[in-house]
What does this fold into?
Amino acid sequence: MIHWLKPVIDIILPPRCLLCGKAIHSDSSLCADCFSKINFINKPYCKHCGMPLDADIPDGLCCTNCLTAKQNLRLCRSAIKYDEISKRLILNFKFSDHLENKKLLCNWLFMAGEDIFKHGIDVIVPVPLHYARLFKRKYNQSAILAAGLSELCNIPADYASLKKIRHTTPQIQCSGKQRTQNVKNAFQVVAPQNIKGKRIVLIDDVYTTGSTLNECAKALKKAGAKSVDALTVARVCP
It folds into this structure.
C-alpha cells in the first residue's frame, strides 16, 4: 500500500479493538480497557509445563503433575490464561474467520516462547487437523499461528510431516481421562526425514490437559526428533 494512503484510510475507517470494536490507533490490537482484562501468565510457573504457581512459591520449581507424570514434551509455555475474555478472542479466530486476530496472537506466542527459543529450535510444527475437520472448518488455526510465528522468529515451519490419521471426537466434548484415550495413536509422522534430529516446537491455540500436544510429541519423538516443546496462545488454569 502507498505509504501516505493508510493514514487517510484510518481516518475514514479507523482500526477497531479486536474484542469490543472501539476505535483505536493501532491495527490488530486491543483497546486499553480490553487489554487490561487479559490475564498474562507470568512467573512463577512450573519450569516444565508452564502452569502458573502460587505467587509465594519460588520460581524454577515443577508442579506436582510434572513430578509424577511421564511427559513426551521438554517444555510447554502459554502466553495467557484461558478465561471468558481470552476465550472470545481465540474462538472468533478459530471458528468465525476473524483472521485479523492472527497478528496479536502471534506476537503473544513469540513473547511466551522466550524459554523455548533460548534452548534452540529448528522447526515449527502446528498441531494438524484431520482432513474431514479441515474441510468443515476451512482452515487450521494452528497452521496460521505457526506461519505468523515463523515470520517473527525466522524459523521454518513444517506443515506436512505430522498428520492426524484418525478422526476423533472434539476434545471439548471429552473429560480429562477421555481426552487422552480419544487422541491415542491419532497422529503420525509421514516424512520422518524432515523430523529426525530436529528440535521442534509444536503450536496450538489452547493447552487444556495437554493430551493432544503430548500425543503429537510422542509421534515426533518416535520419528527421531531430538526434542519437542509446545507453545500455545492460552492455557486452561485451575
Summary: The beta strands are 76-81, 123-126, 162-164, 187-189, 199-207, 227-235. Residues 97 and 191 are 30 Å apart (CA to CA). The chain has a mean pLDDT of 91.
